């Protein structure tokens, strides 16, 4: 009898602890679920715009000698601080602020003055998402398209650790100087709408540990975390500099 009671207590505590790890549970607030479905009908259309410091791959398929790839293994060129790049034949070109499609059409038009039917392709090589905190493999996730989603990024980093707060994940956009912070609760099914989960290049995902209490929704309330993230970025930069 004692063994049965002890087993029952053990299973009770296991059940209670597992509940904290269950994602996408049904909300008691059905209004939130209905709102979520309505939001899903209008998806955000986002196109990344090229910025100074970006690394671009520019390919001219019928003229490979003019492409950015070279025998030395260089696969891209950096956009200068003034937003321009320097290309063979056409010289200096202002490209910052353009989408990939707009940049492609602009270069194709410029090259058409010298080449017959040039076919140009432009890609940004350095787009990424930063994932910090309680995931099994913190770091960066390369981004091939203009955006991705939170579930895919966390999956690529091995999923959550046992210490992760699944109900209070932070998405920080706009850089550390002008941060826009969003909270996502993955324990609720109402979080499963497109607008909540979308991630854009250079976004930071921070999964808090369970021993940190929820903070104020105002940016000031997140300053300790932002300072912590800023310190991490500074450390990464120093490591990169030392390793050169």
UniProtKB/TrEMBL annotation:
<keyword id="KW-0812">Transmembrane</keyword>
<dbReference type="InterPro" id="IPR049712">
    <property type="entry name" value="Poly_export"/>
</dbReference>
<feature type="domain" description="Polysaccharide export protein N-terminal">
    <location>
        <begin position="46"/>
        <end position="124"/>
    </location>
</feature>
<keyword id="KW-0472">Membrane</keyword>
<dbReference type="GO" id="GO:0015288">
    <property type="term" value="F:porin activity"/>
</dbReference>
<protein>
    <submittedName>
        <fullName>Polysaccharide export protein</fullName>
    </submittedName>
</protein>
<keyword id="KW-0406">Ion transport</keyword>
<keyword id="KW-1134">Transmembrane beta strand</keyword>
<dbReference type="Pfam" id="PF22461">
    <property type="entry name" value="SLBB_2"/>
</dbReference>
<keyword id="KW-0564">Palmitate</keyword>
<keyword id="KW-0732">Signal</keyword>
<keyword id="KW-0626">Porin</keyword>
<dbReference type="Pfam" id="PF02563">
    <property type="entry name" value="Poly_export"/>
</dbReference>
<comment type="similarity">
    <text>Belongs to the BexD/CtrA/VexA family.</text>
</comment>
<keyword id="KW-0449">Lipoprotein</keyword>
<dbReference type="InterPro" id="IPR054765">
    <property type="entry name" value="SLBB_dom"/>
</dbReference>
<keyword id="KW-0813">Transport</keyword>
<dbReference type="GO" id="GO:0006811">
    <property type="term" value="P:monoatomic ion transport"/>
</dbReference>
<dbReference type="InterPro" id="IPR003715">
    <property type="entry name" value="Poly_export_N"/>
</dbReference>
<keyword id="KW-0998">Cell outer membrane</keyword>
<feature type="domain" description="SLBB">
    <location>
        <begin position="127"/>
        <end position="207"/>
    </location>
</feature>
<keyword id="KW-0625">Polysaccharide transport</keyword>
<dbReference type="GO" id="GO:0015159">
    <property type="term" value="F:polysaccharide transmembrane transporter activity"/>
</dbReference>
<keyword id="KW-0762">Sugar transport</keyword>
<dbReference type="GO" id="GO:0046930">
    <property type="term" value="C:pore complex"/>
</dbReference>
<dbReference type="GO" id="GO:0009279">
    <property type="term" value="C:cell outer membrane"/>
</dbReference>
């Amino acid at each position: 009898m004692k063994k049965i009671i002890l087993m029952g207590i053990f299973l009770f505590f296991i059940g209670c602890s597992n509940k904290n790890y269950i994602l996408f549970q049904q909300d008691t607030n059905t209004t939130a679920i209905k709102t979520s479905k309505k939001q899903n009908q209008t998806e955000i259309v986002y196109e990344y715009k090229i910025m100074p410091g970006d690394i671009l791959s520019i390919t001219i398929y019928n003229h490979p000698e003019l492409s950015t790839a070279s025998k030395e293994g260089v696969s891209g060129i950096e956009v200068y601080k003034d937003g321009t790049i320097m290309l063979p034949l056409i010289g200096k070109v202002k490209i910052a602020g353009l989408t990939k499609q707009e940049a492609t059409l602009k270069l194709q038009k410029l090259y058409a003055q010298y080449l017959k039917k040039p076919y140009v392709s432009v890609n940004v090589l350095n787009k990424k998402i930063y994932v910090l905190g309680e995931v099994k493999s913190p770091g960066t996730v390369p981004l091939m398209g203009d955006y991705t989603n939170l579930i895919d990024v966390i999956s690529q980093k091995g999923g959550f650790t046992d210490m992760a707060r699944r109900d209070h994940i932070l998405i920080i956009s706009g850089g550390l100087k002008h941060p826009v912070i969003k909270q996502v609760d993955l324990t609720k099914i109402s979080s499963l709408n497109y607008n909540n989960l979308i991630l854009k290049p250079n976004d930071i995902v921070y999964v808090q540990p369970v021993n940190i209490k929820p903070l104020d929704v105002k940016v000031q309330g997140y300053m300790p975390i932002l300072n912590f993230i800023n310190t991490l970025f500074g450390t990464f930069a120093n490591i990169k500099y030392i390793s050169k």
